[in-house]
Amino acid sequence: MTQVRPARHLMRAKDLVDARYAEPITVDDLAAAAGLSRAHFSRTFTTTFGESPRAYLQTRRLERAASLLRHTDRPVAEICMMVGLTSVGSFTTSFARAYGLPPAAYRAAMPPAAVHARIPSCILGRDTRPRAVSRVGADSTPGEDGTSGPPVASGP
Question: What PROSITE patterns does the annotation carry (predicted)?
C-alpha cells in the first residue's frame, strides 16, 4: 500500500495548530483555514492523520507542556495557561493520561536540564587536566632577582 501525502489544505490546518496551539482555536477555525466544512474537515483530518483535530490540538499542547516542565521552573498553573488550556484540573488529568504521571511528578522524575548540557571539550579538558604542583622554596627554581636558589629576605 502506498502512502499518500496529505493534501495542502489539511497541512495548512495542521500548521495552524502547530503555530498557534496556545491560542483558543476551534475546529471551525481549522476547517476555515482548510477551506472545508466542519464535518468534511474533521472526517478527512481524522482519516489522514489518525486522530481528530481536537485530539491533535490537545497532543500539541501537552507536548509543549511536557517540554516546559522539563526545561523551566514555571508553576504548573502558569504552564497550563501558556499552552492554551484554562483548567488546571483538566490539564492535570489529561497530562497524567498521556504521560502516566501528573505534571508535578513528571517534572520531579526528569533530571534537571543541566545534567544533559554538553560541555565543550576545551572546557572539559581544562577542568579535568592535572594541575602543576607548585614547589615554593625549592632550590632549583629561580629567585625573584633571577638567580638560582630560594629568594633571600631583605630585612629592614
Answer: HTH_ARAC_FAMILY_1, HTH_ARAC_FAMILY_2
pLDDT per residue as tens, the chain (156 positions) = 445 566 888 999 999 999 999 999 999 999 999 999 999 999 999 999 999 999 999 999 999 999 999 999 999 999 999 999 999 999 999 999 999 999 999 999 987 655 556 766 666 666 665 666 666 655 555 555 555 555 555 555
Alpha-helix residue ranges (DSSP H) falling in the chain? 8-20, 27-34, 38-49, 53-71, 76-82, 88-99, 103-109, 121-128
* Domain boundaries, given as residue ranges, for the chain: 8-115
Q: How many CB atoms lie within 10 A of CB 111?
A: 8
Q: Which residues, at least 6 apart from 22, have a Cβ–Cβ distance to it below 8 Å? A: 61, 64, 82, 83, 84
- pTM for this one? 0.68
As given in the structure block, the three cell numbers for residue 70 are 522539563
In contact, 115 and 108? CB cutoff 8 Å: no
Q: Is there a contact between 14 and 49 (Cβ–Cβ < 8 Å)?
A: yes
Q: Select from 154, 34, 115, 117 the least CA-distant residue to 42.
A: 34
